[in-house]
From TrEMBL, chain A:
InterPro entries: MetI-like, MetI-like_sf, Phosphate_PstC, PstC_N
Superkingdom field: Bacteria
Keyword Transmembrane helix found: yes
Organism ancestry: Bacteria, Pseudomonadati, Pseudomonadota, Gammaproteobacteria, Pseudomonadales
Gene name linked to the record: pstC
Species annotation: Marinobacter salinexigens
Protein name: Phosphate transport system permease protein
Topology in the lipid bilayer: Multi-pass membrane protein
The ABC transmembrane type-1 domain, residue ranges: 234-450
UniProtKB/TrEMBL annotation, chain B:
InterPro entries in alphabetical order: AAA+_ATPase, ABC_transporter-like_ATP-bd, ABC_transporter-like_CS, P-loop_NTPase, PstB-like
Residues spanning the signal sequence: none
Protein name: Phosphate ABC transporter ATP-binding protein
SMART domains assigned to the protein according to its UniProt record, in alphabetical order: AAA (SM00382)
UniProt domain ABC transporter: residue ranges: 50-292
UniProt feature, compositional bias: Basic and acidic residues: 17-31
């Protein structure tokens, strides 16, 4: 049976187990004089039965799905006769795909060697066997789990504790998924980065001021020597992010103050969702807005006052990005400002402070950690933003602080390095991982700085 | 105590009805017994700090204060008592317009501080609140240092030109609040780390640092233990020499201990105002009597 069918089946068994355990706990309680003589409510006995039925079965199902392919593949490959047995990993993957294509009928069987045909038969058999075996095992475990839970429906056994403990592990597992994913990403990036530094010296990458990631396909190619200096990319990123934050932080903060302190309840209920809609606009839409409307406008204005502006400019990308991240600042700040207790406001107002003085002296310091959180979120968004920059700021890696020049950012370069046909062990593609690593480190440092700022200046209430 | 309160006359309120009402036996007197705008006792004064006439407060549609007229005399301590929800806090918050921040709250009638209308649209609320300070039910020190808490008001109003002036104001206020000896070595510590009673006295110090003429206190001791309460009450007695104090309290003993006059509120009506001694020994209105003898409330 397919996993897709097995999954609902397990759930059905779990529901049946739930119902059976529920009925049984009631009937066990009957002669004792009601459910209050049980150690736990019937719901807990039933929930425990469902959990014990579903969780082991699902774990088995997951493990099977994860390892089935690899195991079968190894068995098939090792069954191949010596003359067609693969010599290198490349050959192995070729032959495996050949075998599975034959097995699935995508490849004409007459055009492959005898040995592959045999292997394809074997593959099909193994797959069928595995599927049957899996189905039997999963159902068996689900039923066994339910049966065990059913026998444990006894008045002196506290099912509530079992359920609580299981749930705690479940919650922990969910939290662990997020952490493990991050760790996995970081590790994979680190390995590739180390490989990159084997090809390009780390000092050149860190301190080089020129970025032109070409690698030679042939030894005699023209312009084949690439330059991998990350400085122009990071200055570009910082320039655009700084412009974006210069727009988003004041505007966002002040709109948050307006929303929380001055706007009427009705006004707030209308304005806040509208502001939040800004964050919901796809970035590609912002991108063409920036590229087709803002950038030419800026170039025109700069021309008028005698400045030389490029058609794609950091300023255009930064301004539009700033508008995009306003809601990150305003919405979060509004929430934390609202969370500052009313009695602090009253205390300040009763001393004759105006609303603005109260805001500046009392509310703002108390809300600082949350506001900083909003700003950091906005900053990460700005640093990571790619689409607007590609469209409005260009691809040229200029080392400049002039916002009217076209610049490029780290994320944009990662995209261009990894799109299209690539060989995955050239310095060019590996550079993307090194850039990702640096980006990760930079945002980490920014977060640490923000944390320290908050710790220094916040005024903690209650 | 009453000698300190020479300005209250024994003139009775407009349209005060019978002194003696037939004793009522029921536990909870109905509102129907109360005649609107009628207050028994001595609600008026010759030398009023506050002159409040026909005050009505609305929360949206509902009328929380029903046609109350009252004078608050200069340098007196007047206590507002009454069951929960009777409007005493609402009425108190009219005196420095703290109700302004509640959108649906509307105040009608004439409220004058030293013959100037409090609710005049052109009135500067900042100046009003600098003159009429307020201490709240729950101690609400700012999450700043003790020094900054007391210096907050003076800084806003520019009361000190030099740092040394500000230091003096802070020290004097803390001394008046009886807190100086406890905190003089840790003025830089955060105020939120103090005990509840200290926090409340700090809030009082913070209020008097602005040199107000009136201090409003909204159940200032309800969150404090008996020892802290005693300290705050002592403080009120000292402050009464230089300030007009209006105190809302749930504790009748407290009203009896600290106030010159006591006003009894019931369901938005001001039922009786009299010298505190009289209210607690021989109240004129039967409902006041019921309340102070604990028959309801």
């Amino acid at each position: 049976m397919q996993t897709a069918n097995l999954l609902p089946l397990v759930l059905v068994i779990a529901v049946v187990a739930y119902a059976l355990a529920y009925t049984r706990s009631r009937s066990v309680a009957e002669p004792l004089g009601g459910i209050r003589n049980l150690k736990a409510l019937p719901f807990y006995y039933a929930a425990r039965a469902a959990l014990w039925c579903a969780i082991p079965a699902l774990i088995l199902l997951g493990a099977w799905a994860a390892f089935e392919g690899k195991v079968i593949q190894n068995m098939v490959v090792s069954s191949l006769p010596a003359e067609v047995a693969p010599q290198s990993p490349g050959e192995a993957s070729l032959i495996v795909s050949q075998i599975s294509n034959v097995a699935e009928g995508k490849l004409d069987p007459t055009r492959v060697p005898e040995a592959v045909l045999g292997a394809a038969d074997l593959l099909q058999n193994l797959r069928a066997e595995s599927s049957n075996f899996k189905t039997t095992l999963v159902i068996l475990i689900a039923v066994l789990g339910s049966a065990f839970a059913w026998t444990r429906v006894q008045p002196h056994i506290n099912a509530r504790e079992n359920v609580e403990r299981t749930l705690r592990w479940l919650f922990f597992a969910c939290a662990a998924v997020a952490i493990l994913t991050t760790v996995g990403i970081v590790l994979s990036v680190i390995f590739e980065t180390v490989r990159f530094f084997g090809k390009v010296p780390i000092t050149e990458f860190l301190f080089g001021t020129s970025w032109s990631p070409q690698t030679a396909l042939r030894a005699d190619q023209v312009g084949s020597d690439g330059a991998f200096g990350m400085i122009p990319l990071f200055t570009g990123t910082l320039l655009i992010s700084a412009i974006a934050l210069l727009v988003a932080v004041p505007v966002g903060l002040m709109s948050a103050i307006y929303l929380s302190e001055y706007a009427s309840k009705r006004g707030r209920a209308i304005i806040k969702p509208l502001l939040e809609m800004l964050a919901g606009v796809p970035t590609v839409v912002y991108g063409f807005f920036a590229a087709l409307t803002v950038a030419p406008f800026i170039a025109g204005v700069a021309d008028m006052i005698g400045l030389n502006a490029s058609v794609q400019s950091a300023l255009a990308a930064g301004l539009v990005m700033g508008v995009m991240i306003i809601p990150f600042v305003s919405s979060l700040s509004d929430d934390v400002i609202n969370a500052v207790p009313q009695n602090l406001r009253d205390g300040s107002l009763a001393l004759g402070a105006t609303q603005a003085e109260t805001m500046k002296n009392v509310i703002f310091p108390a809300a600082l950690p949350g506001i900083m959180g909003g700003i950091m979120l906005a900053a990460s968004r700005a640093i990571g933003e790619t689409m607007i920059v590609v469209m409005a700021a260009g691809l040229a890696a200029n080392l400049t602080a002039n916002p009217l020049d076209s610049v490029t950012t780290v994320t944009v370069q990662i995209v261009t390095l990894l799109t299209g046909d690539q060989e995955f062990d050239s310095a060019k593609t590996l550079a993307a991982f090194a850039l990702g690593m640096m980006l990760f480190i930079v945002t980490l440092i920014l977060n640490i700085i923000a944390l320290h700022v908050v710790r220094k200046y916040r005024e903690q209430y209650d | 105590m009453n000698t300190m309160n020479p300005t209250v006359t024994s003139e009775t309120g407009a349209g005060v009805v019978e002194d003696k009402v037939a004793p009522v036996k029921e536990e909870r007197p109905a509102e129907a017994e109360l005649e609107e705008g009628v207050t028994v006792g001595t609600p008026y004064s010759d030398d009023p700090k506050f002159k409040l006439r026909n005050v009505e407060v609305f929360y949206g549609e509902s009328r929380a204060i029903k046609n109350i007229s009252l004078d608050i005399a200069r340098n007196e301590v007047i206590a507002f008592i009454g069951p929960s929800g009777c409007g005493k806090s609402t009425f108190l918050r009219c005196l420095n317009r703290m109700n302004d921040s509640i959108d649906i709250c509307k105040v009608k009638g004439s409220l004058q501080l030293d013959d100037n209308d409090i609710y005049d649209p052109s009135r500067d609320v900042v100046e009003l609140r600098a003159r009429v300070g307020m201490v709240f039910q729950k101690p609400n020190p700012f999450p700043k240092s003790i020094y900054d808490n007391v210096a907050y008001g003076p800084r806003i109003h520019g009361l000190a030109n030099r740092k040394s002036d500000l230091d003096d104001i802070v020290e004097n206020s803390l001394r008046k609040a009886g807190l100086w000896n406890e905190v003089k070595d840790r003025l830089d510590a955060t105020a939120t780390g103090m005990s509840g009673g200290q926090q409340q006295r700090l809030c009082i110090a913070r209020t008097i640092a602005v040199s107000p003429e009136v201090v409003l206190m909204d159940e200032p001791c309800s969150a404090l233990d008996p020892i802290a309460t005693a300290k705050v009450e002592e403080l009120i007695a000292e402050l009464s020499e230089s300030y007009t104090i209006v105190i809302v309290t749930h504790s009748m003993q407290q009203a009896a201990r600290v106030s010159h006059r006591t006003a009894y509120f019931h369901l938005g009506h001001l039922v009786e105002v009299n010298e505190t001694n009289k209210v607690f020994t021989s109240p004129e209105h039967n409902m006041t009597e019921s309340y102070i003898t604990g028959r309801f409330g």
